[in-house]
């Protein structure tokens, strides 16, 4: 029951984010859902009586309902209330939050895909009209017209997304000479707060689910001259149907392309380990190499008694507070180290006595980091080996970065 309570707590936060007010919860324990109404007939009657007596407008289920289940529930409740499932609430939030052209296109595609199989109940009042000859079938005709129009619109949106995704890929290719970090994690884990802490950018930070729908990217200095592009992505959530995930896959692909993936988890949540597992499943589904993932346990300032988080031996787990800044410096140090040792980065170490070569090294484009030592200068750079050889710097290539990390 503790898991059920946690899931309903999350559903209540979703409803609150969507602008609703939760006044009561109902649960039923069954071996399997009822194919017709998801819950038992007696339970439906009980909910209906309570809603009628309390002037309730909407019932929200914490599961994905089939179109027939929604229709059957509304008929049994005599259309007293609107029936929504978890996916419908999330879609409403996405529609409220989307601002960019890409996000709005993604949301509309998800909405229409969700709506297409549910058109029958929306047009049921036209399916049989009283009257006489020539009136039957008007509803069905209108339904087929709407289905065709929606299918055409879905096809148009998919083509539009392909163009947008092509532009995104081109932008990613142009950024290949720059190091990249992607922030991922469960919704409301504090990704936007950490993004603001690292970039000092003025971004929306709210204690609500799915505060961020539009991905944001910004260059950040991690100290010691190390620069990277950091991207804040849309949050994960449990029980998210595939038709909602698919349109946002291109957004999450920022994590696939990133040099480092920072998986942010709200460690103050009771079920934070479950949220961590959900995030890991999503990353695995995207094909993200676990070796590129750094786990950040956020909101350590909210832990009781000042509890702390132990770092993993390989420095892949960090406890931080994005709000207070605790632990962020240690995280930046680890990010610097990880980026400098990432694939595609070449380290050049030139003796200061070789003045001409030093000048070439410090003028190299796409430098990630630069560090002067007593007798040499180190430069971490993204450059082809051919170009390095043309400049005569290939003989100064080294395997390890010795500067401050």
Please outline what is shown here.
The protein is of the alpha/beta class. It contains 14 helices and twelve strands.
- CATH class (first level) name of the largest domain: Alpha Beta
Tell me how many strands there are: 12
How many structural units, i.e. domains? 4
User: Given the C-alpha coordinates, what overall shape results?
Assistant: elongated
Which strand order does the major sheet show?
Answer: 4-5-3-6-7-8
CATH-scheme architecture of the largest domain: 3-Layer(aba) Sandwich
Unreliable residue stretches = 121-138
Provide a count of the helices: 14
CATH superfamily of the largest domain: P-loop containing nucleotide triphosphate hydrolases
**Overall radius of gyration:** 27 Å
Q: Provide the residue-averaged pLDDT.
A: 82
Biggest sheet character: 6 strands, mixed
Which structural class is indicated by helix and strand composition?
alpha/beta
The share of residues in extended strands comes to 15-25%
The H-and-E topology, N to C, reads as HHEHEHHHHEHEEHHEHEEHEHEEHE
Question: Mind explaining what this structure looks like?
Answer:
The protein is α/β, with parallel strands linked by helices. The protein folds into 4 domains: 2-93, GTPase HflX, N-terminal domain (Rossmann fold, 3-Layer(aba) Sandwich), CATH 3.40.50.11060; 98-165, no CATH class; 178-340, P-loop containing nucleotide triphosphate hydrolases (Rossmann fold, 3-Layer(aba) Sandwich), CATH 3.40.50; 346-398. It has helices at residues 2-17, 41-53, 67-76, 86-97, 101-116, 119-122, 138-174, 191-199, 242-245, 249-257, 272-286, 328-340, 355-362, 385-390, and strands at 58-61, 82-85, 180-185, 216-221, 227-232, 260-266, 293-298, 317-319, 346-351, 367-372, 376-381, 397-398. Strand 4 (216-221) and strand 5 (227-232) form a beta hairpin. The longest helix has 37 residues, at 138-174. The protein is elongated and about 90 Å long. Mean pLDDT is 82; it is low at 121-138.
